[in-house]
Amino acid sequence: MDLSTRGPGHPYEIAAMSIGADETTAARPGRWVTVWRQPNFLLGAILTALLVVIAAVSLVWTPYAVDAIAVVDRLQSPSAAHWLGTDLFGRDVLSRLMVGARNSIVVGVVAVGIGLVFGVFLGAVAAARGGWIDEIIMRGSDVVFAFPAIISALLITALIGPGAVNAIIAIGIFNVPVFARVTRGAARQVWAFEYTRAGLAIGKGPFAVTRDHVLPNVASVLIVQATIAFAIAILAEATLAYLGLGTQPPAPSWGRMLFEAQTLMTIEPRLAIFPGVAIVLAVLGLNLLGDGLRDALDPRLRDWRAE
Amino acid sequence: MLTFVIRRALILLATLIVASAAIFVILEVLPGDPALLILGLEAQEDTLAALRAQMGLDRPPLERYISWIGGMVVGQTGTSHTYAVPVSELIAARLEVTIPLALLAFFASSVIAVPLGMLAATRRNRPGDYGVMTFSQIGMAIPNFWFGIMLILLFAVALGWFPAAGFPGWQSGLATGLWALVLPATALALPEAAILARVTRSAVLETLGADYVRTARAKGLSERRVLWRHVLRNALIPMTTILGLQFAFLLAGSIVVENVFALPGLGRLIFQAVSQRDIIVVRDVVMLLVALVVVVNFMVDIVYGLIDPRPRASL
User: Fold this and answer.
1) Which value, in Å, is the radius of gyration of the alpha carbons in chain A?
2) DSSP 3-state helix, strand, coil percentages of chain B (rounded to 5)?
3) d(Cα B264, Cα A96) in Å, to the nearest integer?
4) pLDDT higher than 70, residue B76
5) For residues A47-53, average pLDDT
6) Which residue from A147, A155, A156, A217 is spatially nearest to A175, judged by alpha carbons?
């Protein structure tokens, strides 16, 4: 990582860099085999798969219709009919959690996608061109970094009103400099190798060298970063929805469910527990998966401080 | 070193100018006339014009931008239309909650995380290490607002030890005020502590393998002395960066936690100002928060440059 020329960005970014860097999984050829034996990676993969499967199932089936209001059944405790009970309007909590998973994934994928597309482009250009173009891109990322995602979301809300799209834009904007910096740092390392010079020498342009040599070599770093960014996006989406800046009712969102539960805390604390557990499991799974992928895909990071 | 500081200071200034221009432009293109918002739809045209003139809305944008920035620099701010007091007074009153809250969380996070990280590093791949790393993984996954709700459920609703929400104000006594901030600060501190514990562990592990640590041991220094005098001191370099950044993110995180606990801080102020379309308040508070983030980053860079000469050389 290019930590030396710039102070690092978000704490998560730094934590991401140092995570798992000292694991002593030495086997080189069969490193995928080794990784699968790590309980952390296995747990992360299982939790992430579970999240995706639940979201996929919710597309075709939920125990109850997600907006089915049944006032007679309101505030029920968990039972055979409603596994996780019902909320103030008699809606099935499990069904809403399942659709909430889908909501989290959609916001996360689009927001990380925005960060990837723009961030990788800017980072790759900065690394390939250097000079004043590099300088402008990096200083621009400083400016964007000065706006924590919540502040961006507040400004966008003031501008276009609250909503899921608003949350996606705010989290996406936050991700652009993250990916720009990671890409630039990793790409500069690749540009230091002779084969990139060789590519230029045989008449390839900087664009072709970036496409053929640089990007394939930084892909593993980006996959790891994308996994971590996905986890952060799920947390951010929940936070914005909780504050009323993200997904709007009646669309189910884990963060919004927690907001609604807080007002009923003294009557029905159960409602405040399940959505939170769902968020923790989803974020935990993605973080563990990211750690495991880092160990498997990026030997440089793993051997960084090997003893 | 001097060129490094000057260069960093210029970048700081440029970042502030671009960020303030971005805030100004975003809030400028907002639909709706602030004067109309204040006076209501039935207002007379000449009253509206008079208020616009009084608020300076009839002047060209560039002039208004410059007078806004100039005002911020000398502490002369506009007047909030919902509170009818100067924004600087509002901010000063709200900082009385937000700054102690952030400091308390910062302190709690450091006191918890640094010893845990050192413990994990010295007991590497043993139960203590696994315990700390599990705490760290789970702590990073828990949203601070949900942790806040859980703390309220347990310590306010079930046990009744702490107030569930609100802030009595410092005039009711230092202890009472601090007591009301314990749960919010804990909620704010947990995710930061989880990250910091992890970074401390990595930094200490890295230092433990250094030659001078071996030398210190070879000199016959006690293990505790090696750890505190040689290892922690050097591990502090990467940790400074994190600590500085965390303060900025604690300020932003307080926006969320203040809403969970209904604390009258800066976060709640900006949140309410957005829903009330009190643009003058939004503009000044956002600028203040952004400036805090940028200035703290600047100071971290300088401290980093002082401790570690390498980044200076590469600039």
Assistant:
1) 22
2) 80, 0, 20
3) 33
4) yes
5) 93
6) A147
User: Does B172 contact chain A (CB < 8 Å)?
Assistant: no
User: How many residues does this entry show for chain A?
Assistant: 307
User: Chain A within 8 Å of B189 (Cβ-Cβ)?
Assistant: no
Q: Dig out the tokens for A61 from the structure.
A: 């089936």
Maximum C-alpha span of chain B: 86
Distance CA A261, CA A268 (A): 8
Per-residue confidence (pLDDT) for residue B311, from 0 to 100 = 54
Q: Best mutation site among B5, B146, B240, B269 for testing chain A: the one with the most A CBs within 10 Å?
A: B146
Average pLDDT of the residues of chain B: 83
> Cα-Cα-Cα-Cα dihedral of A235, A240, A246, A252, to 10°?
60
What is the crossing angle of helices B174-208 and B232-260, to 10°? Answer: 140
Q: What are B167-196's pLDDT values in tens digits?
A: 887 788 888 888 888 999 999 999 889 988
Residue A224 tokens read as 């790891």
Name the token pair of A98: 């399942």
Tokens linked to A246: 């993200």
Q: Which two tokens stand for residue A79?
A: 């039972």
- Residues of B with CB below 8 A from A155's CB? 23, 26-27, 282, 286
Identify which of B16, B40, B20 has the alpha carbon closest to the alpha carbon of residue B277.
B40
- Tell me what the mean pLDDT of segment A81-99 comes to: 78
CB atoms within 10 A of CB B241: 22
Q: Is B30 left (phi over 0), alpha (psi -120 to 50) or beta?
A: beta
- Helical axes A93-129 vs A131-145, angle rounded to 10°: 150
Residues 243-272 of B with CB under 8 A from A: 245-246, 248-249, 252, 255-256, 259-260, 270-271
Nearest to A142 by CA among B103, B7, B305, B73: B7
Q: Which residue in this structure is represented by tokens 């996406």?
A: A172
B294 contacts in chain A (CB < 8 Å): 142, 146
Here the tokens at position A219 are 């892909």
Q: Quickly count: other Cβ atoms within 10 Å of residue B40's Cβ.
A: 7
CA separation for the pair A109, A234 (Å, rounded): 9
Nearest CA to A282 among A20, A114, A98, A153? A98
- Between the alpha carbon of residue A204 and those of residues A109, A191, A209, A212, A263, the distances in Å are 34, 14, 6, 10, 63
Helices (H), chain A: 11-18, 31-37, 39-60, 93-129, 131-145, 149-160, 164-191, 194-201, 206-209, 215-242, 254-263, 270-297, 299-303
* End-to-end CA separation in angstroms for chain A: 19
Looking at residue B239, its amino acid is M
User: What distance lies between CA B185 and its chain's CA centroid?
Assistant: 12
pLDDT band at B50 (very low <50, low <70, confident <90, very high): confident
CB contacts, 8 Å: B138 with chain A: 280, 284
Q: How far is CA B139 from CA A282, B4, B109, in A?
A: 13, 37, 11
